[in-house]
Amino acid sequence: MKKILLIFLLLSNFIFGETLTVYIPDAMKWMEKEIKDSFESQYGVELKFVKFEGAAKIVSRLKLEKINPKADIVVGLSSSTLALAKKEEILKQYKPVNSNKIKDIGLVIDKDYFATTFDYGGLAIIYAPDRLKQVPTSFNDIIKLDKSLIVEDPRTSTTGQDFLLWTIAIYKDNWKEFWEKLKPAILTITPGWSEAFNKFEAKEAPMMVSYATDGAYSTYYYGGTSYKALIPNEGGYVQIEGAAIINKKDIKDSAYKFIEFLLSDEFQEKIPLNQWMFPVTNVKLPAAFDYAEEIKNPVTVSGEDISNNLEKWLKEWEELMKK
């Protein structure tokens, strides 16, 4: 009888316990299938995932909800979207107890731990070799290929924002002139990565802005590198993604546990074949990652420059693309 009562109490606590609300980009919807049951059973809380077209839209929602936050966690912040979120003071500073598992200090997305790194990768231009007469090797080559490239909107997409920053890192004060030259090469601009990839797979264009791990993706799913990743000669851009606790009056203990869970072997091992990025801890990589493209000649934009200039850059980009 005591055992039955104990089981009932445990089930009641799970069923009627707290709910942890997690805001994620649509490209990370795999988390719902891959970790929801495990996390809920380990910590006795319900995980509720709310999906958005991109991390930029998540930050916009968090700004609107600043006085009365609905989310507990945000996942998928890049350096650019993190800078915007920190500026709004909507994140809670927290250094997880297992942060020493991060394999390289250079992968720490924020030294003050308003966000914790959980994966990283490099941006690349992926292409289908059978759809190009000649494979470009530089941005200068790409701008000559009319309506050949799918890009993500930097106002709504983390990938899109980082592509904009990539061009700023290379061309500096002349980035707008580069985009003027790039415009004829752009077939379409999508809200996020998922929409871009769907169009790319539908053969609407031979190239898209994506990630250096796409060769690994192609090998894993198609048994060969039908898609290849190009790092232009001008340099490659490294993207780091982080997760953060929302700054609110009552922060749930499970929010801290969730951030720590993201650095666990269980979660890190799921990143390569679901997120198609590199894990930040020393878990073993699957064989397909032998075909991930190495980032050579890396370029970046400092967090300070992003914080001070991103909103201006986005407005300038918007005006430029309207012309």
Automatic annotation (TrEMBL):
An individual GO BP term: thiamine transport
InterPro entries attached to this UniProt entry: ThiB-like (IPR005948)
UniProt GO molecular function: thiamine binding
Pfam families noted in UniProt: SBP_bac_6
Keyword terms of this UniProt record: Signal
SUPFAM superfamilies listed in its UniProt record: Periplasmic binding protein-like II
Gene3D superfamilies per UniProt: Periplasmic binding protein-like II (3.40.190.10)
Highest taxon above the source species: Bacteria
Name of the protein this chain belongs to: Thiamine transport system substrate-binding protein
Organism this protein belongs to: Hypnocyclicus thermotrophus
